[in-house]
Amino acid sequence: MNKLNLLKPDLNNLNTYLYAGSFLIFISLLDVFLNSFFAINVTSYLPQTISFILPLFLGFIGLHLVRIEFTGIKNLDLLNKNINTTNFNAILTLIIIFVIIKSIPPILSWFIIDANITGDTKEACTGSGACWTYIKIWLRRFVYGMYPNAEQWRINLSFISLLALGSVGYFATEKFKKYLTLYYVVIYPFIAFLFIFFFISGGPVFFEFSYGIIAFAVSIIVGFFVPKKLKVWYFLLVPIILYISLKYFLFYEESIDLGKLNGFNWVETGAWGGLSLTFIVSFFCLIFCFPVGMFLALGRRSALPTIRYISIGFIEFWRGVPLITVLFMSSVMFPMFLPEDFFMDKLVRVIIAISLFEAAYVAEVIRGGLQALPRGQYDAAKSLGMGYWKMHILVILPQALKLVIPGIANTFLALVKDTPLIFVVGLLELVGMLNLAKTNPDWLGFAMEGYVFAAIIFWIICYAMSKYSYNLEIKYKTER
Amino acid sequence: MSESIIQMKKVNKWFGEFQVLKNIDLEVEKNKKIVVCGPSGSGKSTLIRCINRLEEHQEGQIIVDNNELNDNTKNIEQIRAEVGMVFQQFNLFPHLSILDNCTLAPIWVKKLPKKEAEELAMKQLEKVQISDQALKYPGQLSGGQQQRCAIARALCMEPKIMLFDEPTSALDPEMIKEVLDAMVNLAKAGMTMIVVTHEMGFAKEVADEVIFMDEGMIVEKAETKEFFANPKSDRTKLFLSQIL
Questions:
Q1: Contacts of A373 (CB under 8 A, 6+ apart)
Q2: Residues in chain A within 8 Å Cβ distance of B157
Q3: CATH-assigned architecture of domain A141-147+267-475
Q4: pTM for this one?
């Protein structure tokens, strides 16, 4: 047997070191484990400090003993290479493992073991853990806000239909692929708007705006058959004429009994809320802020001074003011500047405000992408005879947008997490509803559960978005 | 006397204070091949970039195919479509396949139907011998292949004039030959070409005229044989002695 040198473990006594080291590590982990899960302190007879430090010390020595290079044992080599390279790393590793072991029992007990979910009053929550009963009872409010219970199927149906319509991209055949962009950029948001406007909102608006929608839809369908020369005039005039004629002749309001044709009960936007409102606000803001941001980014780099300065002014203004101020202005100040008979719904104003606000950020992100492109790309596009728009749409933007997917995703995530701020104008989405619910006299003292619930929901949404953006990055990666 | 397709009269250009082009007078006749050489920083690239107005000149006149280039030129895109250009750094569009690189401008600028554009592109890619790479992306190709694709892309617009801005300078020595071969073939087919290059072998083989530039001026302009046999100015002699 070779001489043992405890300070310098080597290959000669591999097994001795290995067994001793593994044993020490095992002991230290076991100690922490017992302490954490069963509240048993094996070393309680020692002074408190030593008892506290002991597992770390033992584990450290254990890791030191097994730190032998080129043992040929695959897992051991991996361990040494990755987490046990130096004494310092060994200690860090141990501390992290201990913290994880230590934190599992309290988290588990709060979330599951000591938590309550049965019953439907506050009194049912007897355990020391979370009171999921509270979430269970309030779930409808958290998801649908003040939307009447009997009408909530409208929200469900709308969201399910929109989800189904949104996923057609996956099933589109090669033949329809080229229309997908048009579909997602124009048609899908339009359908979404119709769903929300007619279905979730309902009420007499159904008829006030349906003329416009009908005129728009009919004229587009007919527009496919109009000769090319007349198209400009056609699209300038026909929809308006159609709209006016529909409004004043066909559906003249007094000639029909509005009461019978009201469609669904009207639910005013003030009653919307909860998670569904989070989705609605985020969805439309994402859709609107992107094109606006893109034009602002192009405008900021335009050679025309007017457009450039307007873009710069716009971007710097919106980036300079806090979102909460913008929202407040949109709800309080903005209506003062409008003519008296002009009414714009609070939700619409909020969506416009957030969109413009985020558009400024999106613009700067996209500008970064535009600037990252080599000048040669512009030269090449120009030398092929492309004008400004062709060059940007075909060559520059596809590359620039691909570059800024992470940045855009970042902005969009921030946008989704900014939506709770709409409480300042009295719209209560998920977090707003939580704030409302926690002040309910019957359910005082469950703020924690509510916020954890909101955190989990937001995390799921945001994680899905970030995953999706990551997939996009891979999908559009053509270099190498 | 054949007509001149490019005319430059007393062209001056400044980058800020620095004058890059000084009193350039140049006429290029149809189907002629001109090689422009000279030390770096002598304004060669700027000269040919002025011809399709990637750079704007400040004084003088540039007339390309009977269109004068100035701020009022409305149809600059049309002129550019007639003037193909190949760059030192290839400048292929990395987000498009080789075939799409070649068909993009014909489809969107010349409004060719997609099928025709693809046939044309395949024909041009065939000529530069990379038709088998048509569905790959630029990033997957070697430098020489990329540059040949760039030539094919420019040719797909069926230009009247081809400008080459140091097409082989960014290439490995081994790949230079394949690109030069493609250019020689193009020259033999009768294209009007202006080539900025340091490849004197290429100049001797195809050029009708060689222009030597230094410090923004055309120092010497002569028939190819004349240029290499008895250069007139001392500056040209010095340059040739170093490069040959």
A1: A396, A399, A400, A403
A2: 384-385
A3: Orthogonal Bundle (1.10)
A4: 0.84
